[in-house]
Amino acid sequence: MWRWLIPLSVVPVLGLLAYGFRVNPRDIPSPLVGRPAAPFVLRTFDGRDLSLASLRGRVVVLNFWASWCYPACYEEAPALERSWRAYRDREVSVVGVAIQDQPDAARKFIADFSLSFPNAPDPDGKVSVDYGVYGVPETFFIDRAGRIRLKQTGAVSDDLFRGEVEKLLGEPA
Amino acid sequence: MRRAGLLALALAVLVGGRSVEARAPEAPRLATGPVAAAATGPVNAPPTVDEETVRRVATQLRCVVCQNLSVLDSPSEMAAQMRAIIRERLAAGESPEQVVQYFVDKYGEWILLSPREHGFNLLVWAAPVVSVLVGLAVVAVLLRRWTRPRARPATPIDPALRERIRRELDSLP
User: I need a labelling partner for B22 at 20 to 30 A (CA). Which of A64, A166, B138, B142 fits?
Assistant: First the structure.
């Protein structure tokens, strides 16, 4: 009996380790998916007020970025701009939020990538915390009813954007 | 532009406290970074907020952009913003538990440096105690085994030798 006890006690430990090593510690599931997106009012870099409420009825792609976030934010910026241009007339809004960034550096980033969708800073970090953002880039896909349907951690690709937005556009408002 | 905004804010402060209170929520928009973090604290929070309570809440929360640092201990801008949010929510009348719950709602229990004592999490709390108890039991068993005087098996004596000893004893004067 005792002879088997010590080898057997290793089994649960190994099981726990096997589980732990398969899980990516950086991949933290957001409790916000499926919940209503937190309302926000942002002042864009070009001085306009932008609220989530004003976008109700549209599919909203809310992208958190920073000019110092290299390379992921630099990879996705052209994809976001391309996708925005492709879908802007189909009731899709893309909103960029620059977090933990210097205004001048953020403006340069916007100019460098010729971003034409609205971008705003989040100087007090409240919108970031309301969306549970812990890094950049993070992107939230919000359906027409104002619910968060997907959180993408890391760069958004053209394919991911198209796939998710087409799905949300196909749903009734 | 930003300098002009700050100047306007400074003028407003000089002109009268009443107008400052009205403008306070707008203030952080004028600046970013440490300036904003500094501005949200003292301007937004009335002096009634107990800093000890702010610290008590901040020490429970994980700095989301750090490795194993609390919001209290982290020097990062994000943590400063989170401290400002804690201060502001406490000032608005929320209890420390409600403030902690706000962050849990946004980030999940991952944001807590000490996982809550329920469900699977109990393993984290129970495992060290169980390990120590099992370790002590193993040590106790081994110590008893090692220190127990061993009952030596009686060595069979060769009958011839026994006979010789008897003879020699008998022959003694």
Answer: A64
Query: What is A33-169's CATH topology?
Result: Glutaredoxin (3.40.30)
SS3 B91: helix
Interfacial residues of A (vs B; Cβ cutoff 8 Å)? 9, 28-32, 43, 100-103, 121, 123-126, 128-135
Rounded to whole angstroms, the Cα distance separating A53 from A147 reads 12
Question: For residue range B92-138, what is the model confidence (pLDDT) as tens digits?
Answer: 999 999 999 999 999 999 999 998 888 888 888 888 999 999 999 99
The architecture that CATH gives domain B45-114 is Orthogonal Bundle (1.10)
Q: Measure A47 CA to nearest chain B CA, in Å.
A: 11
Listed by start position, the domains of chain A span 33-169
Query: CB of A142 within 8 A of CB of A120?
Result: no
